[in-house]
Design goal:
Layout lengths: L4 E15 L4 E16 L6 E12 L1 E11 L2 E10 L5 E16 L2 E13 L4 E14 L5 H7 L16 E16 L4 E13 L4 E16 L2 E12 L7 E11 L2 E10 L4 E7 L4 H10 L7 H6 L7 H26 L3 E7 L8 E9 L4 E8 L2 E12 L4 E7 L5 E7 L5
Parallel strand pairs: 8-9
Antiparallel strand pairs: 1-2, 2-3, 3-4, 4-5, 5-6, 6-7, 7-8, 9-10, 10-11, 11-12, 12-13, 13-14, 14-15, 16-17, 17-18, 18-19, 19-20, 20-21
């Protein structure tokens, strides 16, 4: 009858039917044994369902109905009123049920939920207590939050999920545990309210992180303190305010993250103190900065041959490509390039770090610096007037400012 549903199991029917097809009157029972029901738009289905449905006139009631879902136990009670506009009222009690929140992330929770209304207007309310959070390997917190904030999209046609309003209180238990190959001993609490509709949910509330270690956009950090707040009543929009610490190549870096996931603001401190571009190079490539005298003493430079310089250039380009997407999310950088190069009379390469950001459709900002010479900075802003003309304003490493105009024409 509906391709979105699939079911199996056995039914034993003992009932009489009277009335008309438009207004049937049923009396008797339907016994379910080892039944299962799955709905394509729900992450969890029902299996091993056993119970009895009693019919009395135009009302169907659930009796002694138990089932399994997500590895946990489920108990259902309620009724279905068969009329011109069918109504239903269901109550579900779940214990240790696993739910896949999104790809790579699942929770184990105990909940009491109520679903009441009609197919045209229903409400899912109740409460859920999260006992355990599981992360799949190679899944980090930054990627999880990015996928948790989808763009708002209009529904193409009415459906059961579009018309189902949500009002569910979600909290964490005192014995909450986080299990993952990339996050150990994370401590925190959550107090959230899920609202909106089942097809376009929204979240209000806050998640507080008090300790532990996690992976954030590819780098491992120790949680000093942090909150993930949800203020938008129309969509899931996490807003971060967290202090994270990491140690890379002997440098202690403290990262403070604030703002929504798609426009985060970051500030850094490090021990020993490093400049902004040096911290980017350190976190992106794991390369120890060469401008700090303490690090130079502990990590003397290694001389490279010309062959090794070529290999370093190729490796730098290979590193830059996968890192660029991560930097775009974290730093607002749309292009990253690291070029080891050498000058005449020198046997050691100079690493040039290039950061490029497309500010608008017609304006591109480029920042170029040498990691081993913080004063050698080049800033370039290019403005495209039309497909043929463009202008570029640049301040080079010597502090000289210039404006150049470019004319482009294609000959066929």
């Amino acid at each position: 009858l509906n391709h979105d549903f699939s079911s199996s199991g056995s039914l034993t029917v003992a009932a009489t039917a009277r009335g008309t097809l438009a207004k049937p009157a049923l009396n008797g029972t339907v016994q379910l044994k080892n039944a299962s029901v799955n709905y394509t738009q729900f992450p969890n289905g029902i299996s091993n369902a056993n119970g009895t449905v009693e019919f009395s006139g135009n009302t169907a009631s659930l009796r002694n109905f138990t089932a399994e879902t997500g590895g946990g136990k489920l108990t259902l009670t309620g009724f279905l009123l068969l009329a011109d506009s069918p109504r239903f009222g269901l109550r579900a009690s779940a214990s240790n049920v696993r739910v896949d929140v999104q790809q790579g992330v699942s929770i184990v929770a105990t909940s009491n939920l109520n679903l009441a209304g009609t197919s045209a207007a229903s409400t899912l309310s109740g409460n859920a207590v999260i006992d355990r959070i599981n992360y799949a390997p190679r899944t980090d917190l930054g990627s999880i939050l990015t996928r948790a904030a989808p763009a708002v999209q209009g529904s193409s046609a009415p459906s059961l999920l579009d018309n189902m309003k949500l009002d569910v209180q979600v909290t964490t238990s005192d014995a909450l545990s986080v299990q993952s190959a990339l996050a150990q001993a994370v401590e925190g609490t959550a107090n959230l309210r899920v609202q909106g509709t089942a097809s376009q949910p929204s979240v209000l509330g806050r998640v507080t992180l008090t300790g532990g270690s996690l992976t954030f956009f590819g780098n491992s950090y120790t949680v000093d303190s942090g909150t993930i707040s949800f203020y938008n009543p129309f969509r899931i929009e996490p807003i971060l305010d967290a202090s994270l610490e990491t140690n890379t190549e002997g440098v202690d870096v403290t990262l403070h993250v604030t703002g929504p996931i798609d426009n985060m603001k970051l500030s850094y401190t490090s021990d020993p103190p490093l400049q902004f571009e040096e911290i980017i190079s350190l976190l992106a490539t794991g390369k120890t900065p060469t401008t700090d005298p303490t690090l130079l003493a502990n990590n003397p430079p290694v001389q490279q041959s010309f062959t090794q310089m070529g290999e370093s250039a190729v490796m730098g380009q290979a590193i830059a490509n996968p890192v660029a997407s991560r930097l775009q999310r974290v730093f607002g950088v749309s292009q990253l390039k690291i070029n080891p190069e050498f000058t005449n009379g020198s046997s050691t390469p100079q690493t040039t770090l290039t950061l490029q950001q497309q500010i608008t459709k017609n304006v591109t900002f480029t920042y170029i610096t040498q990691v081993d010479n913080a004063n050698a900075e080049t800033i370039r802003v290019e403005f495209t007037l039309n497909p043929e003309w463009s202008a570029a304003a640049m301040r080079d490493e010597n502090g000289i400012f210039s404006i150049n105009f470019f004319y482009k024409r294609q000959f066929r």
